[in-house]
Amino acid sequence: xxxxxxxxxxxxxxxxxxxxxxxxxxxxxxxxxxxxxxxxxxxxxxxxxxxxxxxxxxxxxxxxxxxxxxxxxxxxxxxxxxxxxxxxxxxxxxxxxxxxxxxxxxxxxxxxxxxxxxxxxxxxxxxxxxxxxxxxxxxxxxxxxxxxxxxxxxxxxxxxxxxxxxxxxxxxxxxxxxxxxxxxxxxxxxxxxxxxxxxxxxxxxxxxxxxxxxxxxxxxxxxxxxxxxxxxxxxxxxxxxxxxxxxxxxxxxxxxxxxx
Amino acid sequence: xxxxxxxxxxxxxxxxxxxxxxxxxxxxxxxxxxxxxxxxxxxxxxxxxxxxxxxxxxxxxxxxxxxxxxxxxxxxxxxxxxxxxxxxxxxxxxxxxxxxxxxxxxxxxxxxxxxxxxxx
Lengths: 260, 120
Fold this sequence. Notes:
The structure holds two protein chains of two kinds.
Chain A: E1 7-15, E2 25-33, H1 39-50, E3 69-72, E4 75-78, H2 84-87, E5 91-95, E6 102-104, E7 107-108, H3 111-119, H4 129-133, E8 139-140, H5 143-150, H6 160-164, H7 166-170, H8 177-187, H9 195-202, H10 216-220, H11 227-243, E9 253-254
Parallel strand pairs in A: 1-5
Antiparallel strand pairs in A: 1-2, 3-4, 3-5, 6-7, 8-9
Helix pairs in contact in A: 3-8, 8-11
Chain B: H1 2-28, H2 30-36, H3 49-53, H4 56-85, H5 89-118
């Protein structure tokens, strides 16, 4: 009987422990690869069998939570939905997401990313506060109105767009493609009335007008969202608002309440 | 909204510069342009015909406006680039003021030249 040798993939991992290391360094591990194995599976294998101190984030393992975003061979991926086969290499250089401070090994500090996201008030703001807090009936939104924002609601806030963005690389205060596209997602939602509150945030320095339209965010997004498109659409809204200050989008109607 | 107007103005000035430069290039080098299109016009088209017909004051004014537009476009772009590299609101304000003051000084200096030239 001849024994079939499993394919070996070398994981060259960036390691950094701020309590022990002065600067990041690389460490190599050999991982037996099997069909369908993901980068996250490889990292879990290393943690379970080689080095339990290896630190990385992961949760859902199905591309929903966005926790496991990492840099593989100088490109950002979700580790859980990237199979070793599709990378087409037996050597993987794995680093934490760039443009964000490293906490340990592959874990980055996403505080600035979520602070920026929070600054644009990522929730529906209604002009009728009473109706928003104690809704009497539901809003009516047509399929066409929903389609205008639908793809942008798929954002999982993984931070991959920010790590791929060349503006974020040079401007650490840049709001980032994810935040700006989410701003568009809420402003373009006809149930929302908060554009006036969000506009000053995105139209400030380090905001939307600093986007160079490189398109790297849209290319890298693991959920197929097109943040570059959202940024352009939001630019159009802001210019339109600046030229015609009183203009507002048609608000969503409220479904008549039926007595039972 | 302030940044939106500044960005819009930069786009508009960019288009104006492009159109103005095209007009300037064609009017200055019309015979060469026609020659490129296969029309032998070298020596046929009087040099500076339009310029000679116009009042010198008009040319001085146009040159002044064009200088102002180019300066705004260039300095606004420079400010955006520098602000991107500076992660501090205080330093960004200093950059803005240095650029505004330099812009005014350069504008006054460069407008003086066409005014003198066209006033002769």
